[in-house]
Design goal:
The protein has 314 residues and is an alpha/beta fold. The chain has a single domain, classed as HUPs (Rossmann fold), CATH 3.40.50.620. It is 47% helix and 11% strand. The protein contains twelve helices and ten strands. Strands 5-4-3-6-8-7 form a six-stranded mixed sheet, with helices on both faces. A hairpin with a 4-residue loop joins strand 1 and strand 2. Helix 5 crosses helix 12. It is globular, with a radius of gyration of 20 Å. The mean pLDDT is 93.
Length: 314
């Protein structure tokens, strides 16, 4: 197996490109794909300050590494979710990454700083854990980006993620979500600009990138994600990709090229929803109190949930 670029020994094959790459040219490919996404969707300009939401997983750490290598001023934001030893381990990976590279890391701990954690919030509100987690992350990521004066908030959503979310939104015909499923959501109405620079790269490619760059990351899945429909949609798309390489790319980018504008733009104001500051935190909301503050109020009043330590296989 030879590299398509230099004809040297290849380390990875990428079937959707019908090509193999050596380590050097695969890393270059990853950077080129991020630069292409940034350019095509006007995600960033030179001199922008970027806040990357880092979880300890491969995608967000690879994104932090890539944007830093590309010359952007990038800080990391880690949110401790309080999900037992999974969160403890994830935080360790993030801190080690930042310390080894001399990068600035901002940390927010749900239990210490907000008075609750994800397991307790999920139990107190009877939400699916991923729902309580996602709501908390969106609110706190937005707040940190705005308070820090960053030009953009970047997340490590890759092609697999976006294609799976798109599939789920189409199955349910969630038109509001379809209209907002773009690589960039502009700033406005009290929200920061949000960007997804990894949309041209897959999970497998991000894992390979981390191995080749010597980035240690959390490989365990979140123990509270069992039964998440998103994971099921990923499995379906993985099966399609085996039979038809490039299916994920064609699905997602075909949607962006041909259909997303049919569901309204990210700044569509034909039927605007009135937003006002939350009475408790000041974040934009459609009611008196935002969803995060309602969730936090219930969770703070509840008995903390303690997760059992995971059993290590021998």
């Amino acid at each position: 197996m030879k590299c398509r670029v230099c004809r040297g020994p290849a380390v990875i094959d990428i079937r959707r490109h019908n090509a193999n790459f050596c380590a050097e040219h695969f890393l270059r490919l990853c950077r080129d794909q991020v630069e292409k996404a940034v350019s095509r969707f006007a995600m960033l300009q030179r001199g922008d300050r970027v806040l990357v939401a880092v979880s300890g997983g491969k995608d967000s750490l690879a994104l932090w590494d890539l944007l830093t290598e590309m010359g952007y001023e990038v800080d990391g934001l880690y949110l401790g979710l309080g999900i037992g030893d999974y969160s403890d381990s994830s935080g360790t990976y993030v801190r080690a990454f930042a310390e080894a590279r001399g990068l600035h890391l901002i940390e927010v701990d749900l239990r210490a700083d907000e008075g609750f954690d994800v397991p307790t919030a999920a139990a107190a509100t009877r939400r699916v854990p991923c729902s309580a987690c996602g709501l908390s992350k969106r609110h706190l990521f937005d707040r940190a980006a705005l308070e820090g004066g960053y030009d953009a908030l970047a997340t490590g959503h890759n092609l697999d993620d976006e294609a799976a979310v798109l599939l789920g939104n189409v199955v349910k015909w969630q038109t509001d979500y379809l209209g907002r499923q773009r690589p960039v959501l502009p700033a406005g109405d009290g929200f920061p600009r949000k960007i997804k620079p990894l949309v041209r790269l897959t999970e497998r490619e991000m894992a390979a990138y981390c191995v080749l760059r010597g980035i240690d990351y959390q490989v365990e899945e979140c123990p509270m994600a069992a039964g998440n429909r998103h994971l099921g949609h990923k499995e379906t798309l993985n099966d399609m990709e085996v039979r038809s390489p490039g299916a994920k790319h064609d699905l997602y980018f075909g949607f962006l090229d041909r259909a997303v504008d049919r569901f309204g733009s990210a700044t569509d104001d034909e039927d605007p929803v009135a937003l006002a500051p939350c009475a408790e935190c000041g974040a934009p909301t459609t009611g008196d109190t935002c969803a995060f503050c309602r969730l936090a109020g219930q969770a703070r009043a509840a008995e903390p949930v303690t997760l059992r330590p995971r059993r290590r296989s021998r």
